[in-house]
Write a structure and sequence with these properties.
This protein is α/β, with parallel strands linked by helices and about 260 residues long. It has one domain: 2-enoyl-CoA Hydratase, Chain A, domain 1. About 40% of the residues lie in helices and about 10% in strands. It has 11 helices and 4 strands. The protein has a 4-stranded parallel beta sheet with strand order 1-2-3-4, with helices on both faces. It starts with a strand and ends with a helix.
Length: about 260
């Protein structure tokens, strides 16, 4: 059996143009689609009529990706503080969907754990980027995680799969989101460095429609396959089986298998 450690980087998009609600408003009655959470969960949060992939909670993604009863959380007692005393009434600090010190530390510890145990690694990205409310403390997480990944991938020759969901933006895109040995994107995922709103307000230029969607970026060679949620678990299984047959490091890869 191949043992895998999975971590979810959760958050909300900084751009409302790719939210669940905006997808349905003006298309059909939203009440028919969001009133039954159980129904949506049974459909993996995918619209049956158009195939649109709505956002998922981290717990739902864990359930989608791994076998029941095999989830073993790490460092779940770590919580965000307010190191630079950032205050905002419009956007509560602790509810921002972004990468701060806690996320950076958790991911770094996870990578170090996988390195020590010779385990393959999956990171599922869903984040608005580095947390501006922590200033340079959040920006340094990009380098810290990337450094841990360098040891994991280049020195230990272990296998890392990055899964980009909507949204994947900012510092996550600029660091570990794009460092996977295999990079998978969900259909119609919003993937960018600077968000649509930031670009348009800064440069006073319109961002072409669809230019930050996974399908457009796939044709530009930004990542590997686009994989819908339905077959994702099977695709991951095949990737790890293939990696077991053609390991980057044969000695260490044998220890991954139990």
């Amino acid at each position: 059996m191949i043992r895998i450690k999975t971590f979810i980087v959760g958050g909300d998009s900084e751009s409302s143009s790719y939210s669940n609600v905006d997808h349905f408003v003006g298309v059909r009655d939203i009440r028919n689609f969001i009133s039954d959470d159980t129904f949506f969960k049974s459909k993996m949060n995918i619209c049956e009529q158009c195939g649109y992939h709505l956002k998922m909670s981290s717990s739902d993604r864990i359930e989608l990706s791994i076998d029941p009863g095999t989830w073993d959380p790490m460092d779940d007692d770590m919580v965000s503080l307010d190191p630079i005393e950032f205050h905002s009434e419009e956007e509560p600090y602790k509810k921002s969907g972004s990468m701060g010190s806690v996320v950076g530390e958790k991911i770094t510890r996870l990578i170090e754990y996988a390195t020590n145990k010779f385990l393959p690694l999956i990171l599922v990205c869903a984040s608005g980027g580095a947390r501006m409310q922590e200033g340079s403390l959040s920006l340094m997480q990009m380098a810290k995680i990337s450094s841990a990944l360098y040891d994991y991938q280049s020195n230990q020759k272990l296998f890392y799969v990055s899964i980009l969901t909507s949204p994947t933006t900012g510092g996550v895109t600029a660091s570990f989101g794009m460092l996977g040995d295999i990079i998978i994107a969900e259909p119609n995922a919003y993937i960018a460095f600077a968000g649509k709103r930031v670009i348009e307000q800064t440069l006073n230029k319109a961002v072409p429609e669809g230019s930050q969607a996974s399908e457009y970026l796939f044709h530009k060679g930004l990542f590997d396959p686009i994989v819908p949620r339905n077959p994702l678990k099977g695709v991951l299984s095949e990737l790890f089986q293939l990696h077991a047959f053609f390991p980057l490091n044969k000695i260490q890869s044998s220890r991954v298998l139990s």
